[in-house]
Amino acid sequence: MTTTPFKDRPRIDAFDKVRGATAYAADIPVPGMLYAMLVPSVVAKGRIATLQVEDAINVPGVVRILTPDDFPPPPEPVRFPNADAPPTLHRDIAFRGQPIALVVAETLEAATEGAERVAATFETQPFAATKRSALAVREEARPTAFGDAGAALAQATMTVDVEYESPAQHHNPIELISTTAVWADGRLTIYEGTQFASGIKEVVARILRIDPGIVDVKSPSVGGAFGQKGWVQQQTAIIARAAMLLGRPVKLVTPRGQIFHLAKFRPNSTHHIKLGADAAGKMTGVHYVADQQQSRRGTFPPDYHAGPTRLYGIRNYYGGGLDYRIDTQPPGHMRAPHEHPACFAFECAVDELAYSLGADPVDFRIANDTRVDPQNGRPLSSRHLNECLSRGAQRFGWSKRTPKPGSMRAADGSLVGWGVASGIYPALVTATVATLRISADGTTRFTTTHHEFGQGIKTAIGAVLLDGLEIDAAKLDIVLGDTTAAPQQITAGSWGTFSVVPTAALAVERMRAAISELLAGRQVSGAIHQQLAAIRRPFLTVEVSLLGPGQDAAALERLRRGQYAVAGPTFPDFTAMSYIAHFVEVQVESTTRRIRMPRVVSVADCGRVVSPRTAVSQVRGGVVWAFGAALREVTEVDPRFGGFLNNDLADYVVPVNADIGEIDVDFIGEPDPVANSVGVKGLGEVAMVGASAAIVNAIFHATGKRLRELPVRIEHLL
Amino acid sequence: MCNDPDVAPEIPDNQLLVSRRDAMIASVAVVAASHFAASARAQTGPRQAALPVSVDQALIIRTSINGQTLEIRIDARTSLLDLLRERLALTGAKKGCDHGQCGACTVHIDGRRVASCLTLAGKVDGREVLTIEGLAGGDTLHPMQQAFIDHDALQCGYCTPGQIMAAVACVAEGNATSRERIREYMSGNICRCGAYVGIVAAIEDAAAKMGRG
Does residue A132 form part of some domain? Predict the structure, then answer.
């Protein structure tokens, strides 16, 4: 494996993005387009009794109103990969905000007015709005357990027994969820910002009872995703149906207020952790039960143990999971879906244990390292968490910290707190295919599996292609998220780089071999384009496919059918994880108790760094997300009516520029020696993991208060 | 696009480069003839779509968008953002909330930054609108756009046009004098990807180059 660091390059699509020239799904011009607006249910559970559409149809410009009568009955549940097909329009109401009708009009203004004039009455039923509701149904999941946690905790010389709560939160990428559907010449084309173009293709076809072979899905550029766009949205099949019924293209841009009920969200979760250590300061046992809110049929698993089991060398672990099924839309994956809440709770508990033992929180973590996966004894492919901790401590100036809470002050009298926490995330990979075509006219086209939503996957692919091949960078076109270009796969879980970068490297290797064979020893100077021109070849194409360790041809077949083709983090011969250490300074103003975060140092082990600039940005973004999760974001439920109350960006408060100070990022940069040919793991998710714990631990160091419920607010410190 | 009945036919350039005064004089006749005015530059300017439905509350507005005089019949309910995006094919300004809470739709009106989603299109009658498409031109970049590339002040790029329009105004207002001040005066523009460190660095850099740091 080459281990030379990749050089710093600008983000490959930045030139278009700064000019407003990048086309997101709702920007794509389609002639003759109609505009749609959904009508949401105002009740949380029940059945539509009457649906009055006459007033709406009389609004000038309204073309048609779709109701449950316009849809086939829902198909059999599609467990794909772990969620039901979303409902279309139907009379049974499962959650507040569920669409009950769709107004289609010549203009957006007419569609909006029409939607406001649709009147419905409901036969309501009693419902459960929160985990604590009487009608919530408790359901236990299979535990993760190894060793003997009970015995270890009984023998421990020091234990903590604590409960932490992470609230319901919504992704809120700035791009609104939208769908544009075009039905023409016997094909259905869907433009939508998604992390899962092939999922839309398969599931929409199934819902509408049409052949997936006539459905094309294009997700050209995505305006932020964070997991929200990783599954088929509620509206997609509805819009497709409207386009097919009307014979004209239909576009829906969903209002943000509706998205809070239509999209998935991070469920509220509670984490009860008992953690024990021996006299030597080694953590010996964990008993950890997490529960979460769940929809009646939701499948987002309450399994919070993939990270905490592998953070340290703890040999005895019991990890339980519980769902409380209530009447909500299904929760789902939101950035670091399990690992963020789990490591918030676990890394705060570790801090509490370190303080109980009188140990330095950095030293305590370093002393609890492991070289094997405690779940199964497999070797770890690479692990540099201790280097992350020690390098981070040095960059941050940790040695100047005085451990006593409340012992450090800023010049203006604010309380200063320094906190640390570790983060961990599985290294995952999907089967991936790619086609690389280099042409004599100077162009290069690389089409592959996976999607770009700002994480920088195109820049990473570009780095591999431009490093390995002499081609014209200005005429390099990287096509992602398009089912007509390559079989697609859900892009999530930080598996994009692990999947496409080794695939791109393989394509480079094959292309170099193909060129060499074509030239057959002739010396032709210039870039590959000139070489092809010289030997009168208009273009040269190589096609490659790549499997993750332990995957077989069945994974490739699943990929080609648009199904889930993901492997890891446990591979046949090793377990692969990414790691990070976060160091946070908070300042708590002595009179207002306002919490500021002037600086953060984060050091990550994500294997080899392919795109240094976008990697730094990913880590900073993860820290910003952790700030939001720790100090700002909660979606409030009104138990009287169900649904989410603060459903706009004025009331669901996300981090803004003035919230964020300096974020210093560094990477260990050691290539993973076994995971793949390039030595990469994953980064986008681990970037966030643990940083909320570091913030909350810093608040403890500043104030002496252990706060165990997020988000932490001023009133908690009064 | 040219076969689409909802889209204005392309008009030869020599009929398009009308002054605002000419446009006002000619407006009644143009509107009567075609239900929409035709003053967009055919190749690079905004492409106009006709208002495809008769509405009770229609308005004719005369405005300048990215330096081009434009006269157009609009539904009085239309926001400036929807006019730009859905009628004029200027999709650089983005819809992120439609409530003036995220800043993705930021444009300039008479040199001041505004949330175009909260601005009724009727309000720009007689005023000058500048969008990201008109900030530089063609393949050239404004110093702020170059600085956003140099400091990687973006990820998904969706909020970026609004950030850049706000950032240019922030410098022009004299509010880019320190990192702290930039952070405060850029807090109306949310970047959910969290590229704030890069955005602040880009504005500091561009402010110096724009001579208003």
Answer: no
Q: Are A32 and B6 inside 8 Å of each other by CB?
A: yes
Q: What is the pLDDT of residues B152-170, one digit of tens each?
A: 999 999 999 999 999 999 9
Q: Is the pLDDT of residue A549 over 90?
A: yes
Strand partners, B60: B73
Please provide the DSSP assignment of A643-681 as one string.
SBS--STTTS----GGGEEEEEEEE--PPPSSSSSS-B-
Between A149-163, A195-209, A263-277, the lowest mean confidence (pLDDT) is in A195-209
DSSP per-residue letters across A203-270: HHHHHTT--GGGEEEE----S--TTTTSS--TTHHHHHHHHHHHTS-EEEE--HHHHHHHS--BPPEE
Same domain, A592 and A680: yes
- A663 → closest Cβ in B53, B56, B197: B197
Sheet holding A539-546, edge to edge: A476-479, A444-448, A432-439, A539-546
Residue contacts between A and B (CB atoms, under 8 Å): 204
Residues 466-485 of A with CB under 8 A from B: none
What would the pLDDT profile of A283-296 be if each residue is shown by its tens digit? 999 999 999 999 99
Q: Cα–Cα–Cα angle for A249, B115, A12, nearest 5°?
A: 65
Q: Provide, as residue numbers in chain A, all residues whose Cβ is less than 8 Å from the Cβ of B6.
A: 31-33
Of B165, B183, B204, which Cα lies nearest the Cα of A657?
B183
- Lowest-pLDDT range of A54-58, A585-589, A698-702, B28-32: B28-32
Q: Are residues A534 and A608 in the same domain?
A: no
pLDDT at B51 over 50: yes
Chain A residue whose CA is closest to B180 = A658
Say whether B149 and A11 touch across the interface (CB within 8 A): yes
CATH 1.10.150.120 placement within chain B? 143-210
ipTM greater than cut 0.90: yes
Q: What percent of chain A has pLDDT over 70?
A: 98
Smallest Cα distance from A461 to chain B, Å? 16
Calculate mean pLDDT across residues A638-660: 96
What number is the average pLDDT over the span A496-500?
97
Q: If contacts are CB pairs under 8 Å, which of residues 254-273 in chain A contact chain B?
A: 255-256
Q: Is A18 on the interface with B (CB under 8 A)?
A: yes
- Mean pLDDT score of chain A: 96
In which domain, by residue range, is A558 found? Answer: 429-567
Query: What is the mean predicted confidence (pLDDT) over A617-639?
Result: 97
Residue of B nearest to A113 (CA): B77
* CATH code at B143-210: 1.10.150.120
**Pair A590, A683 in one domain:** yes
**pLDDT for A81 beyond 80:** no
Q: Give the CATH superfamily of B13-131.
A: Beta-grasp domain (3.10.20.30)
* Average pLDDT of the segment spanning B90-115: 98
Amino acid at A559: L
- Statement: residue A56 has pLDDT above 90: yes
With an 8 Å Cβ cutoff, is B93 touching chain A? yes
Residues of chain A with C-beta less than 8 angstroms from the C-beta of B55:
60-61, 109-110
Q: Are residues A88 and A56 in the same domain?
A: yes
Asked if B133 and A31 come within 8 Å (Cβ–Cβ), the reply is no
Cite the residue boundaries of each domain of chain B with CATH code 3.10.20.30.
Answer: 13-131
B174 pLDDT more than 90: yes
Cβ of B183 and A660 within 8 Å? yes
Tell me how many domains chain A contains.
3
For B:146-175, CB contacts with A below 8 A are 146, 148-150, 152, 154-161, 164
| Beta carbons of B197 and A620 less than 8 Å apart | yes
Average pLDDT over residues A463-477: 97
Residue with tokens 């399994």: A303
Judge if A87 and A31 occupy the same domain: yes
> Which residues 28-57 in chain B show a CB within 8 A of chain A?
51-56
What residue type is B102 in one-letter code? C
- The single residue listed with the structure tokens 């497709």 is A240
Q: What is the CA radius of gyration of chain A?
A: 26
Smallest CA–CA distance, residue B21 to chain A, in Å, is 30
